[in-house]
Write a structure and sequence with these properties.
27% of the residues lie in helices and 25% in strands. By secondary structure, it is an alpha+beta fold. Among the domains are: 174 residues, 3-Layer(aba) Sandwich (Beta-lactamase), CATH 3.40.710; 77 residues, Beta Barrel (Lipocalin).
Length: 467
Protein backbone atom coordinates (compact mmCIF):
# COMPACT_ATOMS: atom_id res chain seq x y z
CA UNK A 1 0.00 0.00 0.00
CA UNK A 2 1.30 3.46 -0.89
CA UNK A 3 1.60 6.11 1.80
CA UNK A 4 -1.45 8.30 2.42
CA UNK A 5 -1.24 11.48 0.34
CA UNK A 6 -2.89 13.98 2.69
CA UNK A 7 -1.07 17.20 1.61
CA UNK A 8 -2.31 16.83 -1.97
CA UNK A 9 -5.78 15.94 -0.70
CA UNK A 10 -5.89 19.02 1.55
CA UNK A 11 -5.02 21.29 -1.36
CA UNK A 12 -7.75 19.85 -3.59
CA UNK A 13 -10.26 19.82 -0.75
CA UNK A 14 -9.57 23.42 0.21
CA UNK A 15 -10.06 24.62 -3.36
CA UNK A 16 -13.36 22.71 -3.54
CA UNK A 17 -14.58 23.92 -0.13
CA UNK A 18 -13.82 27.55 -0.97
CA UNK A 19 -15.58 27.24 -4.32
CA UNK A 20 -18.63 25.63 -2.69
CA UNK A 21 -18.62 28.22 0.16
CA UNK A 22 -19.23 25.52 2.75
CA UNK A 23 -19.10 26.97 6.30
CA UNK A 24 -17.79 23.89 8.09
CA UNK A 25 -16.70 20.31 7.38
CA UNK A 26 -15.58 17.49 9.65
CA UNK A 27 -13.59 14.78 7.84
CA UNK A 28 -12.38 11.83 9.91
CA UNK A 29 -10.49 8.73 8.78
CA UNK A 30 -9.80 5.69 10.96
CA UNK A 31 -7.94 2.45 10.32
CA UNK A 32 -8.77 -0.58 12.46
CA UNK A 33 -10.66 1.74 14.78
CA UNK A 34 -7.79 4.17 15.38
CA UNK A 35 -8.12 7.76 14.20
CA UNK A 36 -5.61 8.23 11.40
CA UNK A 37 -6.53 11.64 10.08
CA UNK A 38 -8.90 14.45 10.98
CA UNK A 39 -9.60 17.70 9.16
CA UNK A 40 -11.82 20.30 10.80
CA UNK A 41 -12.39 22.84 8.06
CA UNK A 42 -14.02 26.24 8.49
CA UNK A 43 -16.46 26.99 11.28
CA UNK A 44 -19.38 25.20 12.88
CA UNK A 45 -20.79 28.66 13.65
CA UNK A 46 -19.75 31.55 11.43
CA UNK A 47 -21.24 34.30 13.57
CA UNK A 48 -19.50 33.10 16.75
CA UNK A 49 -16.34 32.00 14.91
CA UNK A 50 -16.41 28.53 16.48
CA UNK A 51 -14.20 25.77 15.01
CA UNK A 52 -15.13 22.28 13.83
CA UNK A 53 -13.75 19.41 15.90
CA UNK A 54 -14.09 15.64 15.84
CA UNK A 55 -16.80 16.00 18.52
CA UNK A 56 -18.93 18.62 16.72
CA UNK A 57 -22.48 17.33 16.25
CA UNK A 58 -23.90 17.61 12.71
CA UNK A 59 -27.07 16.31 11.14
CA UNK A 60 -26.47 13.08 9.23
CA UNK A 61 -29.84 12.77 7.42
CA UNK A 62 -30.12 9.47 5.49
CA UNK A 63 -26.97 7.98 6.99
CA UNK A 64 -29.59 7.11 9.64
CA UNK A 65 -30.93 4.39 7.34
CA UNK A 66 -28.10 1.97 8.07
CA UNK A 67 -28.76 2.31 11.81
CA UNK A 68 -32.42 1.49 11.15
CA UNK A 69 -31.41 -1.68 9.30
CA UNK A 70 -28.94 -2.53 12.07
CA UNK A 71 -31.86 -2.45 14.51
CA UNK A 72 -33.84 -4.80 12.26
CA UNK A 73 -30.90 -7.21 11.97
CA UNK A 74 -30.53 -7.26 15.76
CA UNK A 75 -34.17 -8.35 15.95
CA UNK A 76 -33.45 -10.97 13.30
CA UNK A 77 -30.62 -12.27 15.50
CA UNK A 78 -33.10 -12.52 18.38
CA UNK A 79 -35.55 -14.50 16.27
CA UNK A 80 -38.19 -11.77 16.54
CA UNK A 81 -38.21 -10.80 12.84
CA UNK A 82 -37.32 -12.41 9.52
CA UNK A 83 -36.28 -10.32 6.53
CA UNK A 84 -38.70 -12.45 4.52
CA UNK A 85 -41.64 -11.46 6.73
CA UNK A 86 -44.39 -9.73 4.72
CA UNK A 87 -44.81 -6.13 5.84
CA UNK A 88 -48.50 -6.80 6.47
CA UNK A 89 -47.53 -9.36 9.10
CA UNK A 90 -46.24 -6.48 11.24
CA UNK A 91 -48.30 -3.64 9.78
CA UNK A 92 -51.68 -5.11 8.82
CA UNK A 93 -52.90 -1.55 8.17
CA UNK A 94 -50.55 -1.34 5.16
CA UNK A 95 -52.46 -0.99 1.90
CA UNK A 96 -50.96 -0.92 -1.58
CA UNK A 97 -52.77 -0.02 -4.83
CA UNK A 98 -52.17 -3.54 -6.11
CA UNK A 99 -53.28 -5.76 -3.19
CA UNK A 100 -51.50 -8.85 -4.51
CA UNK A 101 -48.17 -7.05 -4.84
CA UNK A 102 -48.77 -5.32 -1.52
CA UNK A 103 -49.04 -8.65 0.27
CA UNK A 104 -45.72 -9.71 -1.30
CA UNK A 105 -43.72 -6.71 -0.01
CA UNK A 106 -41.35 -7.92 2.70
CA UNK A 107 -39.05 -6.34 5.28
CA UNK A 108 -36.21 -7.14 2.86
CA UNK A 109 -37.88 -5.05 0.16
CA UNK A 110 -38.23 -2.04 2.47
CA UNK A 111 -34.59 -2.20 3.61
CA UNK A 112 -33.30 -2.53 0.03
CA UNK A 113 -35.62 0.08 -1.56
CA UNK A 114 -37.03 -2.61 -3.84
CA UNK A 115 -40.66 -2.61 -2.64
CA UNK A 116 -41.96 -0.93 -5.78
CA UNK A 117 -43.05 2.17 -3.84
CA UNK A 118 -42.70 5.25 -6.07
CA UNK A 119 -41.77 8.71 -4.89
CA UNK A 120 -44.62 9.80 -2.64
CA UNK A 121 -45.66 13.08 -0.99
CA UNK A 122 -46.90 11.37 2.19
CA UNK A 123 -43.89 11.82 4.46
CA UNK A 124 -43.79 15.55 3.72
CA UNK A 125 -46.81 15.75 5.98
CA UNK A 126 -44.52 14.77 8.87
CA UNK A 127 -41.91 17.38 7.97
CA UNK A 128 -44.41 20.16 7.27
CA UNK A 129 -44.71 21.22 10.90
CA UNK A 130 -41.02 22.00 11.35
CA UNK A 131 -40.79 23.72 7.97
CA UNK A 132 -43.75 25.90 8.88
CA UNK A 133 -41.81 26.97 11.98
CA UNK A 134 -38.86 27.96 9.79
CA UNK A 135 -38.83 31.73 9.09
CA UNK A 136 -36.73 31.02 5.98
CA UNK A 137 -39.29 28.71 4.36
CA UNK A 138 -40.22 31.12 1.54
CA UNK A 139 -36.54 31.81 0.88
CA UNK A 140 -36.11 28.04 0.59
CA UNK A 141 -38.82 27.72 -2.04
CA UNK A 142 -41.92 26.84 -0.02
CA UNK A 143 -45.25 28.57 -0.60
CA UNK A 144 -48.47 28.34 1.41
CA UNK A 145 -49.70 25.77 -1.11
CA UNK A 146 -46.75 23.52 -0.28
CA UNK A 147 -48.40 22.62 3.01
CA UNK A 148 -51.78 21.53 1.65
CA UNK A 149 -50.99 17.92 2.58
CA UNK A 150 -52.40 15.58 5.23
CA UNK A 151 -50.49 15.97 8.47
CA UNK A 152 -48.51 13.02 9.79
CA UNK A 153 -47.14 12.57 13.31
CA UNK A 154 -46.53 8.83 13.61
CA UNK A 155 -45.97 5.84 11.37
CA UNK A 156 -49.60 4.91 12.07
CA UNK A 157 -50.64 8.26 10.56
CA UNK A 158 -48.37 7.54 7.61
CA UNK A 159 -50.00 4.17 7.00
CA UNK A 160 -53.41 5.87 6.92
CA UNK A 161 -52.27 8.64 4.55
CA UNK A 162 -50.55 6.16 2.23
CA UNK A 163 -53.73 4.08 2.09
CA UNK A 164 -55.68 7.19 1.07
CA UNK A 165 -53.13 8.38 -1.55
CA UNK A 166 -53.69 7.74 -5.24
CA UNK A 167 -50.55 6.17 -6.70
CA UNK A 168 -49.31 3.12 -8.57
CA UNK A 169 -46.50 0.78 -7.60
CA UNK A 170 -43.56 0.77 -10.01
CA UNK A 171 -43.93 -2.98 -10.40
CA UNK A 172 -43.91 -6.19 -8.40
CA UNK A 173 -41.69 -6.26 -5.29
CA UNK A 174 -38.04 -6.86 -6.15
CA UNK A 175 -38.35 -5.71 -9.77
CA UNK A 176 -37.36 -2.05 -9.36
CA UNK A 177 -35.02 0.01 -7.20
CA UNK A 178 -36.40 3.35 -6.04
CA UNK A 179 -35.24 5.18 -2.94
CA UNK A 180 -38.22 5.40 -0.59
CA UNK A 181 -38.26 7.43 2.62
CA UNK A 182 -41.80 6.19 3.23
CA UNK A 183 -40.51 2.62 3.12
CA UNK A 184 -37.91 3.34 5.79
CA UNK A 185 -40.47 5.18 7.90
CA UNK A 186 -42.57 2.01 7.90
CA UNK A 187 -39.58 0.09 9.28
CA UNK A 188 -40.02 2.07 12.49
CA UNK A 189 -43.36 0.33 12.92
CA UNK A 190 -41.78 -3.08 12.33
CA UNK A 191 -39.04 -2.38 14.90
CA UNK A 192 -41.44 -1.03 17.51
CA UNK A 193 -43.95 -3.85 17.19
CA UNK A 194 -41.34 -6.60 17.07
CA UNK A 195 -39.33 -5.23 20.01
CA UNK A 196 -42.32 -3.97 22.00
CA UNK A 197 -40.40 -0.71 22.53
CA UNK A 198 -40.59 2.75 21.04
CA UNK A 199 -37.81 3.28 18.52
CA UNK A 200 -35.93 5.96 20.47
CA UNK A 201 -35.70 3.75 23.56
CA UNK A 202 -34.71 0.73 21.50
CA UNK A 203 -31.97 2.56 19.60
CA UNK A 204 -30.57 4.17 22.75
CA UNK A 205 -30.40 0.90 24.67
CA UNK A 206 -29.25 -1.39 21.87
CA UNK A 207 -27.14 0.78 19.57
CA UNK A 208 -26.12 4.22 20.85
CA UNK A 209 -25.23 3.23 24.43
CA UNK A 210 -23.40 -0.05 23.68
CA UNK A 211 -21.33 1.55 20.91
CA UNK A 212 -20.54 4.59 23.06
CA UNK A 213 -22.20 7.16 20.82
CA UNK A 214 -22.41 9.80 23.55
CA UNK A 215 -22.76 12.72 21.15
CA UNK A 216 -25.66 11.34 19.13
CA UNK A 217 -29.41 11.91 19.26
CA UNK A 218 -32.51 11.78 17.10
CA UNK A 219 -34.11 14.82 18.72
CA UNK A 220 -33.31 18.44 17.90
CA UNK A 221 -34.51 19.31 21.40
CA UNK A 222 -31.55 17.34 22.82
CA UNK A 223 -28.92 19.36 20.99
CA UNK A 224 -28.60 21.97 23.73
CA UNK A 225 -27.11 19.23 25.92
CA UNK A 226 -24.03 18.97 23.68
CA UNK A 227 -21.14 21.46 23.95
CA UNK A 228 -20.47 21.56 20.17
CA UNK A 229 -23.29 21.64 17.61
CA UNK A 230 -22.97 22.84 14.03
CA UNK A 231 -25.24 25.68 12.98
CA UNK A 232 -27.21 25.06 9.77
CA UNK A 233 -26.68 26.94 6.52
CA UNK A 234 -28.39 26.83 3.13
CA UNK A 235 -27.30 27.87 -0.38
CA UNK A 236 -29.06 30.25 -2.74
CA UNK A 237 -28.29 31.75 -6.11
CA UNK A 238 -28.11 35.55 -6.34
CA UNK A 239 -27.43 37.21 -9.69
CA UNK A 240 -26.02 33.95 -10.98
CA UNK A 241 -23.68 33.50 -8.02
CA UNK A 242 -23.89 31.09 -5.11
CA UNK A 243 -24.45 32.58 -1.67
CA UNK A 244 -24.86 30.96 1.74
CA UNK A 245 -27.14 32.07 4.55
CA UNK A 246 -27.78 31.03 8.15
CA UNK A 247 -30.87 28.77 8.35
CA UNK A 248 -30.85 27.51 11.95
CA UNK A 249 -34.20 25.69 12.27
CA UNK A 250 -33.82 21.90 12.20
CA UNK A 251 -36.32 20.07 9.99
CA UNK A 252 -37.59 17.00 11.80
CA UNK A 253 -40.04 14.31 10.71
CA UNK A 254 -42.45 14.54 13.66
CA UNK A 255 -42.41 11.23 15.56
CA UNK A 256 -40.77 9.27 12.73
CA UNK A 257 -37.01 8.84 13.12
CA UNK A 258 -35.91 5.90 10.98
CA UNK A 259 -35.44 7.55 7.60
CA UNK A 260 -33.10 10.43 8.50
CA UNK A 261 -33.31 12.04 11.95
CA UNK A 262 -29.96 11.14 13.55
CA UNK A 263 -27.56 13.87 14.63
CA UNK A 264 -24.02 12.76 15.46
CA UNK A 265 -20.33 13.63 15.55
CA UNK A 266 -17.50 12.35 13.38
CA UNK A 267 -16.01 10.54 16.39
CA UNK A 268 -19.30 8.80 17.21
CA UNK A 269 -19.81 7.77 13.60
CA UNK A 270 -16.31 6.27 13.43
CA UNK A 271 -17.26 4.15 16.44
CA UNK A 272 -20.50 3.21 14.71
CA UNK A 273 -18.77 2.26 11.45
CA UNK A 274 -16.50 -0.14 13.32
CA UNK A 275 -19.53 -2.41 13.61
CA UNK A 276 -19.34 -2.94 9.84
CA UNK A 277 -15.55 -2.98 9.66
CA UNK A 278 -15.27 -5.71 12.33
CA UNK A 279 -18.24 -7.88 11.38
CA UNK A 280 -20.53 -6.74 14.18
CA UNK A 281 -18.28 -5.63 17.06
CA UNK A 282 -17.79 -2.30 18.80
CA UNK A 283 -14.72 -2.20 21.03
CA UNK A 284 -14.97 -5.96 21.41
CA UNK A 285 -18.68 -5.95 22.29
CA UNK A 286 -20.98 -7.90 19.96
CA UNK A 287 -23.61 -5.49 18.58
CA UNK A 288 -25.00 -7.70 15.84
CA UNK A 289 -24.05 -11.04 14.35
CA UNK A 290 -21.43 -11.31 11.64
CA UNK A 291 -24.18 -12.73 9.42
CA UNK A 292 -26.30 -9.65 10.09
CA UNK A 293 -23.47 -7.39 8.95
CA UNK A 294 -22.86 -9.60 5.92
CA UNK A 295 -26.51 -9.29 4.92
CA UNK A 296 -26.42 -5.51 5.31
CA UNK A 297 -23.31 -5.29 3.12
CA UNK A 298 -24.57 -7.72 0.48
CA UNK A 299 -25.50 -6.07 -2.86
CA UNK A 300 -29.14 -7.17 -2.91
CA UNK A 301 -30.34 -4.83 -5.68
CA UNK A 302 -28.60 -3.21 -8.62
CA UNK A 303 -29.60 0.33 -9.51
CA UNK A 304 -30.21 1.32 -13.15
CA UNK A 305 -26.97 3.32 -13.12
CA UNK A 306 -24.86 0.38 -11.97
CA UNK A 307 -24.47 0.80 -8.22
CA UNK A 308 -25.81 -1.63 -5.64
CA UNK A 309 -27.88 -1.38 -2.48
CA UNK A 310 -27.77 -3.68 0.52
CA UNK A 311 -29.69 -2.93 3.70
CA UNK A 312 -29.32 0.79 4.41
CA UNK A 313 -25.93 0.78 2.69
CA UNK A 314 -24.74 1.27 -0.89
CA UNK A 315 -21.90 -0.52 -2.67
CA UNK A 316 -19.97 0.47 -5.75
CA UNK A 317 -18.63 -2.07 -8.25
CA UNK A 318 -15.08 -3.00 -7.10
CA UNK A 319 -12.36 -0.73 -8.50
CA UNK A 320 -8.61 -0.93 -7.96
CA UNK A 321 -9.20 -4.02 -5.81
CA UNK A 322 -11.33 -2.15 -3.29
CA UNK A 323 -14.98 -2.36 -2.29
CA UNK A 324 -16.45 0.88 -0.95
CA UNK A 325 -19.55 0.43 1.21
CA UNK A 326 -21.11 3.81 1.81
CA UNK A 327 -24.15 6.03 2.25
CA UNK A 328 -24.89 9.73 2.16
CA UNK A 329 -27.55 12.07 3.39
CA UNK A 330 -28.87 15.53 2.66
CA UNK A 331 -31.46 17.91 4.00
CA UNK A 332 -31.39 21.62 4.72
CA UNK A 333 -28.13 22.41 6.51
CA UNK A 334 -26.83 18.85 6.18
CA UNK A 335 -24.58 17.01 3.72
CA UNK A 336 -23.19 13.77 5.12
CA UNK A 337 -21.33 10.70 3.90
CA UNK A 338 -19.84 7.62 5.52
CA UNK A 339 -17.70 4.90 3.93
CA UNK A 340 -16.16 1.56 4.89
CA UNK A 341 -13.40 -0.13 2.87
CA UNK A 342 -13.23 -3.68 4.26
CA UNK A 343 -10.01 -4.62 2.46
CA UNK A 344 -8.21 -1.77 4.26
CA UNK A 345 -10.02 -1.86 7.63
CA UNK A 346 -10.76 1.76 6.75
CA UNK A 347 -13.67 3.98 7.80
CA UNK A 348 -14.32 7.55 6.62
CA UNK A 349 -16.82 10.16 7.83
CA UNK A 350 -17.59 13.45 6.05
CA UNK A 351 -20.02 15.90 7.66
CA UNK A 352 -20.93 19.40 6.45
CA UNK A 353 -23.40 22.01 7.65
CA UNK A 354 -24.48 23.11 4.16
CA UNK A 355 -26.90 21.13 2.00
CA UNK A 356 -25.70 20.66 -1.55
CA UNK A 357 -22.09 20.26 -0.50
CA UNK A 358 -20.45 17.29 -2.25
CA UNK A 359 -19.67 15.23 0.87
CA UNK A 360 -19.73 11.97 -1.12
CA UNK A 361 -17.11 13.28 -3.53
CA UNK A 362 -14.95 14.37 -0.59
CA UNK A 363 -15.42 11.01 1.11
CA UNK A 364 -14.29 9.05 -1.93
CA UNK A 365 -11.34 11.41 -2.40
CA UNK A 366 -10.35 10.78 1.22
CA UNK A 367 -10.50 7.03 0.62
CA UNK A 368 -8.20 7.46 -2.38
CA UNK A 369 -5.78 9.54 -0.33
CA UNK A 370 -5.83 7.07 2.57
CA UNK A 371 -4.92 4.09 0.38
CA UNK A 372 -2.41 6.00 -1.74
CA UNK A 373 -4.40 6.09 -4.98
CA UNK A 374 -4.39 9.06 -7.37
CA UNK A 375 -7.44 11.35 -7.59
CA UNK A 376 -10.52 9.79 -9.22
CA UNK A 377 -8.95 6.32 -9.20
CA UNK A 378 -12.17 5.06 -7.61
CA UNK A 379 -14.40 6.89 -10.09
CA UNK A 380 -16.22 4.92 -12.77
CA UNK A 381 -15.26 5.51 -16.37
CA UNK A 382 -18.07 6.09 -18.88
CA UNK A 383 -17.28 5.34 -22.55
CA UNK A 384 -18.52 7.46 -25.43
CA UNK A 385 -21.66 6.11 -27.11
CA UNK A 386 -22.59 8.34 -30.04
CA UNK A 387 -26.29 9.03 -30.64
CA UNK A 388 -27.56 11.19 -33.47
CA UNK A 389 -30.20 13.91 -33.08
CA UNK A 390 -32.99 11.56 -34.17
CA UNK A 391 -32.12 9.07 -31.44
CA UNK A 392 -31.88 11.87 -28.86
CA UNK A 393 -35.30 13.27 -29.80
CA UNK A 394 -37.17 10.67 -27.71
CA UNK A 395 -35.84 11.99 -24.38
CA UNK A 396 -36.83 15.67 -24.01
CA UNK A 397 -39.65 16.36 -21.58
CA UNK A 398 -40.55 16.92 -17.96
CA UNK A 399 -39.98 14.26 -15.34
CA UNK A 400 -41.37 14.47 -11.81
CA UNK A 401 -42.00 12.23 -8.82
CA UNK A 402 -44.65 12.51 -6.13
CA UNK A 403 -41.87 13.20 -3.64
CA UNK A 404 -41.23 16.53 -5.36
CA UNK A 405 -38.07 15.74 -7.35
CA UNK A 406 -38.16 17.02 -10.92
CA UNK A 407 -35.99 17.27 -14.01
CA UNK A 408 -36.36 18.99 -17.34
CA UNK A 409 -34.64 17.46 -20.39
CA UNK A 410 -34.11 19.45 -23.58
CA UNK A 411 -32.44 18.90 -26.96
CA UNK A 412 -30.44 21.95 -27.97
CA UNK A 413 -28.25 22.15 -31.09
CA UNK A 414 -28.06 18.40 -31.32
CA UNK A 415 -27.03 17.95 -27.68
CA UNK A 416 -29.02 16.83 -24.69
CA UNK A 417 -29.17 18.94 -21.53
CA UNK A 418 -30.82 18.33 -18.17
CA UNK A 419 -31.96 20.95 -15.66
CA UNK A 420 -32.16 20.00 -11.98
CA UNK A 421 -33.00 22.44 -9.18
CA UNK A 422 -32.58 25.34 -11.59
CA UNK A 423 -29.10 24.28 -12.72
CA UNK A 424 -28.52 23.20 -16.31
CA UNK A 425 -26.03 20.45 -17.20
CA UNK A 426 -24.92 19.33 -20.63
CA UNK A 427 -24.71 15.56 -20.86
CA UNK A 428 -23.33 12.91 -23.17
CA UNK A 429 -24.45 9.31 -23.83
CA UNK A 430 -22.39 6.41 -22.52
CA UNK A 431 -24.79 3.60 -23.44
CA UNK A 432 -28.34 2.88 -24.63
CA UNK A 433 -30.61 5.32 -22.76
CA UNK A 434 -27.67 6.10 -20.43
CA UNK A 435 -26.05 9.52 -20.01
CA UNK A 436 -23.46 11.19 -17.83
CA UNK A 437 -22.82 14.76 -16.70
CA UNK A 438 -19.94 16.33 -18.58
CA UNK A 439 -17.93 16.18 -15.35
CA UNK A 440 -17.82 12.48 -16.15
CA UNK A 441 -18.97 11.39 -12.70
CA UNK A 442 -22.78 11.58 -12.49
CA UNK A 443 -24.74 9.03 -14.54
CA UNK A 444 -28.47 8.85 -15.16
CA UNK A 445 -30.65 6.51 -17.20
CA UNK A 446 -33.94 6.78 -19.07
CA UNK A 447 -36.28 3.86 -18.37
CA UNK A 448 -38.71 2.47 -20.94
CA UNK A 449 -42.15 0.97 -20.53
CA UNK A 450 -43.16 -2.41 -21.95
CA UNK A 451 -44.22 -0.69 -25.19
CA UNK A 452 -40.68 0.65 -25.65
CA UNK A 453 -41.55 4.28 -24.96
CA UNK A 454 -39.46 6.38 -22.57
CA UNK A 455 -41.49 6.37 -19.37
CA UNK A 456 -39.22 7.71 -16.64
CA UNK A 457 -35.81 8.98 -15.69
CA UNK A 458 -33.58 7.45 -13.02
CA UNK A 459 -31.33 10.13 -11.56
CA UNK A 460 -29.44 9.98 -8.29
CA UNK A 461 -31.33 7.19 -6.51
CA UNK A 462 -34.88 7.96 -7.63
CA UNK A 463 -37.27 7.18 -10.47
CA UNK A 464 -38.92 10.31 -11.91
CA UNK A 465 -41.92 9.44 -14.13
CA UNK A 466 -42.45 11.38 -17.33
CA UNK A 467 -45.30 13.88 -17.11
Amino acid sequence: MACPSWPEFIQRFTELAEREKVPGVALAVARSGELEYFLGYGRRDLEKDLPVTVDTVFGVASVTKSLTCLAVMQLVDQGKVKVTDPVVQWLPEFRAPNPEWGRQITVHHLMSHSSGLPGLPCLFGARAGSILRDPNRARLGFTDESFNVPRVQTYEDLLRVMAETDYELLGPPGAHFNYSNEGFALLQGVIERASDQDFLSYAQANILNPIGMTRSTFLATDLNHFPEVAELYAPEIKDGHKDVFHAPVWWDVAGIYTNGSLKSSAQDLLRYLEVYQTGGLADGLRIVSAEGVRQMMTPHVQTPTGGYYGYGLMMEPPLQGFTVVHHGGSIKGVASHVAVVPEQNLTVVTLANLNGFVSEKVGFSAVEAAVGLPPKALSRQFPDYPLDAAALAVYPGEYRSGEGDSASVALEDGRLAITLDGTRFEVRPYGPDAFVWLDGETPFVFLRAEDGQVASLFVGVRVLPRV
